[in-house]
Ribosomal protein S18 acetylase RimI-like enzyme (Ammoniphilus resinae), 161 residues
Amino acid sequence: MVNIRNVEWTDLPRLVAIEHQCFPKEEAATKTAFEERIQRIADSFFVAVVDNQVVGLVNGPVISQPFITDDLFSDIKDNPPTGGHQSILGIAVAPLFQNRGIASALLAHLERSAKEKQRDTVTLTCKEELVYFYERKGYQNRGVSNSQHGGVTWYNMTKSL
């Protein structure tokens, strides 16, 4: 059974490991980026735990604009108590635990939290092969993002809450 909870400092080594298993180096969040996110946005940083082991993560700051911009990957601000747009900078599940609904559970948990805090939308960018996954979860494809993160093409996806 999967348990989802807020991130803790002791999760850091496992978060870095999962991130680097799931993303190419150019796209993966660094240890420093995770440290800043844990410090500043722990209220919108969740981990999935199975048998006392962190197996997945989802995180992102609340932003004032409806789409993610590349500066968010290096410059995180504290989340406002209510309002704004809940972004997702990263969602990842350790390879041995993929295809078990953990990413969907993390996404649903983040969406519930955002709704409770009266966020307007959840916003993220994804690669073309994941557009359908997010559309099935109620997200709308808003077209190609201006993001240059990792040197790949990203699509803006949003879900109204």
In short: The mean pLDDT is 96. The chain is about 25% helix and 30% strand.
